[in-house]
Design goal:
Elements: H1 2-22, H2 29-36, E1 40-50, E2 54-65, H3 68-88, E3 96-110, E4 115-131, H4 137-148, E5 152-160, H5 165-190, E6 193-205, E7 230-243
Antiparallel strand pairs: 1-7, 2-4, 2-5, 3-4, 6-7
Helix pairs in contact: 3-4
Amino acid sequence: MKRTWLLATGLALVLAIVGLSGCNQGPSLGGIISNQQEGIWVTGQGKVTAVPDILSLRLGIEAQAENVAEAQTEAAEAMTRVMAALADSGVAEQDIQAQYFSIRQLTKWDRVKEEETVVGYQVTHMVTAKIRDIDKAGSIIDAVVEAGGDLTRINSLSFSLDDPTVYYEEARGEAMTDAKAKARQLANLAGVTLGKPTYISEGIQIPPTIRMAEAAVPAPVEMPISPGEMEISLTVQVAYAILK
């Protein structure tokens, strides 16, 4: 009799807990999934073009010698001349940032001894210089190459915008217009009335970096640099309610 009473009490407690869980006012997982699947979901895209006003130039010095001290001294002297050339060309000190420095041991395979032997050392020092007057980019590059001589390395250059805010605002407006047009068409095709947006998510696509091949030989004439145009693309994902 006592065992029967305990079983009945346990069953009642389980039912009570289940009942309380069902009365919980928080959203259930099923409700969340259901809400996400409701409405009309579209992706809008906006694109604008802009002329870059910043040129980031990755450049530096690479020196080789039989010992570390000699290679480092040679690299330091050449890099000092390169930094002076940048300063004389109007590149501000705060626009020059160190990017890479290394001292690497150079070896070759000795067939007689059947082992690697050290033949020298290589010192590499790279910086990124931000050029704000693109019209002077060609003359700045030539000055750097002349200052560093055969040790000069120009790894890459990339164009960007100092303040892309206004272009993103324009692209964002086009993306929302595109999304609304798509949603309206879908609503008309489905025979329903389009409501207000219930969800908006934005994604920005970063423009690709324009690179040039490594250069180590001084240019005989000023190198022409054309910034061209860059495309700023932005997408939005929007969910619209359906009015019944």
